[in-house]
Amino acid sequence: MGVCAQCRSVVEAGAQFCPHCGRGMLPPAGRISDGAELDLGWGKVVVGARIGEGGMGVVHRGWLYYNPEGPRSGVPAHPVAVKALHPALRGRARPRQLFLDEALALERLSHPNIVHFFGLADDGQQLAIVMEVVEGQALSEIITRKALARQGSLPCLPFARAWHYFSQLLGALASIHAMGIIHRDIKPANLLVRRDGVVKLTDFGIARVPAAAARETGGMAPGTGAYMAPEQVTAGEIDARSDLYSAAIVLYEMLTGVTPFDRPERNELMVRAAQLEEVPQPIRFHVPSAPPVLDLLMSRALAKDKAQRFASALQFGDAFRDALGLDDVGWGAQQHLARHARVLSQQMLARPSHAHADPSGGEPKGADPPLPAENAPPSAARDPQASPLRTAVIAAYASSGR
User: Are residues 243 and 270 in the same domain?
Assistant: First the structure.
């Protein structure tokens, strides 16, 4: 709630004008405001309307303008997302460090299925990450809508569509793991699906390199209980297999419409305890039409002992694709990108930062993003001079719109 500076009336939080006297409401102290400018050195961002808010930050739409005398002169202005540290967390050392860690992780990464990082603005008052704005919707929204409309023994999302989203998630994870980064918060809400079906992994706020992952965090281990690996719940040693456990729960939810351990009557602590103690119901309990091999894969992917899980994202993807006889569309490109993640991140970061999503608007409600036909890598027969790596890069960037 807020108070109008003119008539002193109590006004609901988020209101732009006082409903009693019509005076414009000032943003809460420390909150980034519509029309504010953020200096990136080589360009500036004009902040627009707020589009979301989470525990760590407030997200606004903005426009990035490049310095006409700088190294990126000539690049046209384009929309971006501006994630500012929540004003309630300003002055607190740990939230600030987590926010800076997210910027550092994004700066090191350049992948078609990871939100693109443009820069960090820090003027001593405001701390904000400027990144790619993704026009579309979160995978969590797609799953919720499909779960409500689900009928009979059919999966929540068709197997081919689930694989289309899942393969992109695994590709992104394979690359960040190759860079020595663990995301630690894989869930559908952190997977943004563009209108053309391209998936973007976001929210690296609690990402850690393995050496730093075991540091004391204070209180409950960060993360979302419904998607946390057992070793994450107990604040044990985590690695890439912890992210893959969370990814398996995302796949489980895409197919069944529910997560394996969450229940309406359970609170966060109860859900975390279930991750340690309970065995998930088979996929076929929810989806009788699912092939038996799917439950074998899921039992391995959700093993309590991480030593029994898939060793890598690529191994997980190969097993799932082969067992269900799914198309290889785009998976070969993901494999090449992962194997050369370090080199590609260094090279792609040198590209002009003008790549951005289509600013025409989000996906209409009630419709699913179409599967992109161009997601397949160009045929080597059409270009005999193209190396597999070059082919993979071309295919991945074509499907990402860069």
Answer: yes
